[in-house]
Task: inverse folding
């Protein structure tokens, strides 16, 4: 692989990382806070009321069986930093960094011998 | 945005312990096998790409988009990762996202991790890959057809992944709704979410293909000049 190739590739990967950071750190503030598809199904039949100690579910729905998350009191639980308001972007950026390090590290360790050129493998 | 944000994936307690355990074991075996098969698709060039694709999916999964008043959806990412890095590496990507979300962000229950991995990292990725691979002769021919392939694969991966939950609920779901209701609601919501999933997947695949088509697994692995052979070896899904 020639030097310009490597530079071009690095630029692309850096750009990709920047997009991920912008999405997690910025666009995340625009995300809908309505329940997602699965949560809408598990909440079906219940009236959700916000109370001082969380959500109260009145009626009959699947979500009433949900148990508290084992790491619910973790420092980044529910995409906030220590429960601080408006910290979703910071939590998101930390998440992207952790994810890219864990995934990148694992894939780097798993990678096989690099082929001299990116020849298409059989039918993969 | 409220501070009592709802989790995005299945919480603990929604399906019973034996069901969680069964799907946990199935997921461990399949993800382990995926790690073995992924080695063939990972090299100095694709490993960093796969790491970034994983982080990108984590980021985009944070973006819930509205689908109906009071209901939202977010990317699952199965077809997206399968098209960009292949199904084996892709399964690992989504699994890593789900593990990071469950451990660090309390998003998706810990005992429900196996069921969530089964639905999104295994069903979602392989269904998305199956559709994309079936259409890849088409996808190679023009940018527009590649985008259409990505859209269709993503739409199907979303709806079929949602059926994974219906299956788990039917086997060992907690009370609260009949399986028929769960089926109808899951498919209905996820058909709408699938449209968003399709748009995001097509846009992302299109953007990568525009600058680095050599980093799109689906295009890289397509037979160069014999589209008719695309159906060859249908048994091996990779």
Result:
């Amino acid at each position: 692989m020639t030097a310009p190739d490597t530079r071009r590739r690095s630029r692309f990967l850096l750009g990709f990382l920047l997009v991920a950071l912008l999405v997690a750190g910025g666009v995340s503030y625009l995300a809908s806070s309505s329940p997602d598809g699965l949560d809408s199904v598990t909440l079906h039949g219940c009236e959700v009321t916000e109370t001082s100690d969380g959500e109260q579910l009145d009626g009959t729905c699947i979500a009433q069986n949900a148990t508290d998350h084992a790491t619910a009191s973790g420092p980044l639980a529910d995409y906030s930093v220590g429960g601080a308001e408006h910290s979703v972007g910071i939590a998101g950026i930390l998440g992207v960094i952790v994810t890219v390090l864990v995934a990148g590290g694992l894939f780097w360790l798993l990678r096989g011998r690099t082929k001299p050129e990116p020849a298409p493998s059989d039918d993969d | 945005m409220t501070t009592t944000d709802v989790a995005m994936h299945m919480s603990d307690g929604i399906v019973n312990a034996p069901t969680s355990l069964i799907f946990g074991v199935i997921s461990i075996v399949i993800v382990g096998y995926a790690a073995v098969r992924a080695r063939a698709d990972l090299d100095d060039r694709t490993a960093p790409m796969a790491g970034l694709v994983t982080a990108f999916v984590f980021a985009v999964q944070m973006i819930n988009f509205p689908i109906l008043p009071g209901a939202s959806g977010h990317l699952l990412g199965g077809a997206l990762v399968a098209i960009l890095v292949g199904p084996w590496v892709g399964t690992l990507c989504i699994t890593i996202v789900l593990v990071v979300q469950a451990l660090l962000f309390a998003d998706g229950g810990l005992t429900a991790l196996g069921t969530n991995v089964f639905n999104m990292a295994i069903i979602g990725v392989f269904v998305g890959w199956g559709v994309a691979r079936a259409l890849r002769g088409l996808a190679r021919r023009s940018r527009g057809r590649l985008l259409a392939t990505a859209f269709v694969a993503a739409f199907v991966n979303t709806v079929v992944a949602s059926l994974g939950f219906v299956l788990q609920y039917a086997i060992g779901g907690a009370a609260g709704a009949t399986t028929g209701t769960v089926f109808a609601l899951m498919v209905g919501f996820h058909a709408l979410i699938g449209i968003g999933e399709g748009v995001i997947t097509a846009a992302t695949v299109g953007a990568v293909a525009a600058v680095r088509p050599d980093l799109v697994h689906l295009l890289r692995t397509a037979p160069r000049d014999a589209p008719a052979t695309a159906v060859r070896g249908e048994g091996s899904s990779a």
Remarks:
- Chain B touches chain A through 92 residues (CB under 8 Å).
- Chain B has nine helices and two strands.
- Strands of chain B lie at 65-68, 71-73.
- Chain B has one domain: 17-223.
